[in-house]
Amino acid sequence: MKNERSNNIFLSEGINVLSLFDGMSCGQIALDKLGIKVNNYFASEIDKHAIQVTKHNYPNTKHIGDVTKVKGDDLPKIDLLIGGSPCQGFSFAGKKLNFDDPRSKLFFEFVRLLEETKPKYFLLENVKMKKEYEKVITEHLGVEPILINSALLTAHNRPRLYWTNIPNVEQPNDNGIYFEQIRDLQIENYEYISDEKTINREYKKNYLQYDINGKGHGSQDQRAYYLKGKHGCLDTGASGKAKVLENDGRVRKITRNEAERLQGVPDNYTTSVSKAQALKMLGNGWTVDVIAHIFNQMAAQADKERGEEKNIITADMHEPSLKTGT
Fold it and tell me: What band does 271 get if pLDDT is binned at 50, 70 and 90?
């Protein structure tokens, strides 16, 4: 039996969180960053490397396995449901598939558990997609998405859609951060690409495009972003694609710490797995700063409700007695 709790749980009792497709628990990092007390964090995830990273950093996480086997009745009252269902079926970077893609169908597991757990708040993240797919998601969740680019808060471009019933979520202010400001100064970590593999150079507005085969394909694998600009969006192939152009003209891969900083993840958070696995899950993950920006409105709403409740109580205490006629 799920017990109803007060609206001020975020500031007093703590909350129960159900995270679907949890990955390496970027949602948990965001809650931690804001100081929101979490009593139970239930994580549905099947990738062993992501689970390993989460366990290393948040050993109290309750891992509950495959999302299709999670049942609302088996859980306590859930206050916050979050998830970013696999985006490959929707992504502009993929094959522009639709809801027939088995990965995209996992979205409906989010819908099912939203209905079964009836949380106070929910958040679903996904990529920019065709309007027809976006409309289906909106109809099922009952809220319009807000498009936020991680570039406002971090040093890389990552436009994402966020569906949430958390009130008053708006665009964050641009903090004007560029790659140079999050650059890893431990140069012993740099992995340079040989000059012979970065030939046929063309300097674009935001990046260097090179073409080892001279075929003019403009492959994302053969780009290096400028230090004084924003890096391109990390994706699951970040281990091979994520590169920067150094001031001396050499191209290098970004370091693990740089990839973590692009997503707002603490330095060395992913050290329990290989760099290749770390960049893959960072490419799959959430931008912590954006999630914290959204979650901060949860805490603000709790403050507002608490203040209104306090005012009501105070008013009741000072309500003057009615005078009766004689």
Answer: very high
CA 87 to chain centroid, in Å, comes to 12
Gyration radius from the chain CA atoms = 23
Does any domain span residue 325?
no
Kindly report the pTM of this predicted structure. Answer: 0.87
Domain count along the chain: 2
Cα–Cα distance for residue pair 93/86, rounded to 1 Å = 13
The chain-wide mean pLDDT, for the chain, equals: 87
Statement: residue 191 has pLDDT above 80: yes
Residue 191: other Cβ atoms inside 10 A: 11
> Given pLDDT bands bounded at 50, 70 and 90, which one contains residue 212?
confident
Question: 3-state DSSP call for residue 289?
Answer: helix
Residue 229: partners with Cβ closer than 8 Å, 6 or more residues away: 178, 179, 206, 207
Which residues neighbour 237 within 8 Å (Cβ) at sequence distance 6 or greater? 221, 280, 283
What is the distance between the terminal CA atoms of the chain, rounded to a whole angstrom? Answer: 54
Same domain (yes/no): 260, 301: no
Tell whether 194 and 107 lie within a shared domain. Answer: no
> Do 142 and 211 fall within a single domain?
no
Same domain, 162 and 296: yes
DSSP state of 220: G
Q: Looking at residue 100, which CATH number applies to its domain? A: 3.40.50.150
How do residues 49-89 score in pLDDT, each as one tens digit? Answer: 999 999 999 999 999 999 999 999 999 999 999 999 875 55
